[in-house]
Backbone:
């Protein structure tokens, strides 16, 4: 499955290069040298666990958690956590595995915190704001090497024409850039085309959390 993820990632570099701009061969080569890893990550001393995806020190770690009550074809809240190197100035996550026709979560650092932007793209152009998915920030921070944001989304598990499978394999995608967002405090800000992209396919099994634990964890998120 990891080998398949690598192949799909290379294809996605071509498919998601909007406006006719393709990521540089050097950037693609850097990604190709790494082995994508998916695993289960649990916070020490808690019942909070995530489906974790990582691909080397220059790409964010992506973690997804859902309540164990999640049912396919029924909307359920999702948690997305990213831990990104400070060299990356925005990070995007696709809930449906591609740039178009599914909810996109775009995040960037904003001072010591982060801005989370809900987006949707009908074509390979700048994604527009998407009101059918809303976010509440669980935590956000920044230090000298990394920035982190964890957000709970209502509306990322089901959308017009698709949705997440609670029991089967789902395909997710990501995109990153080193070009700063012009208005970091504005969730509707424009942002540059991505420099690197990738995708991976996994079931949500490793990210399922007891519903009571999930609900208690996100309580108070803003």
Residues:
């Amino acid at each position: 499955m990891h080998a398949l993820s690598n192949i799909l990632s290379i294809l996605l570099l071509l498919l998601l290069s909007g406006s006719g701009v393709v990521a540089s061969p050097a950037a693609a080569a850097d990604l190709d040298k790494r082995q994508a890893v998916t695993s289960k990550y649990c916070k020490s001393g808690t019942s909070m666990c995530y489906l974790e995806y990582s691909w080397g020190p220059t790409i964010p770690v992506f973690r997804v958690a859902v309540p164990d009550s999640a049912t396919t074809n029924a909307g359920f809240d999702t948690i997305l956590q990213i831990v990104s190197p400070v060299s990356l100035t925005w990070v995007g996550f696709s809930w449906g595995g591609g740039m178009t026709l599914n909810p996109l979560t775009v995040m960037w650092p904003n001072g010591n915190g982060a801005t989370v932007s809900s987006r949707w793209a009908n074509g390979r152009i700048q994604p527009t704001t998407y009101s059918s998915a809303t976010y509440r920030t669980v935590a956000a921070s920044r230090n000298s090497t990394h920035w982190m944001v964890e957000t709970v989304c209502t509306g990322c598990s089901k959308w017009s024409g698709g949705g997440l499978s609670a029991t089967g394999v789902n395909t997710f995608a990501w995109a990153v850039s080193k070009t700063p967002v012009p208005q970091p405090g504005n969730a509707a800000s424009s942002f540059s085309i991505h420099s690197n992209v990738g995708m991976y396919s996994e079931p949500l099994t490793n990210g399922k959390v007891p519903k009571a634990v999930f609900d208690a964890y996100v309580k108070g998120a803003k």
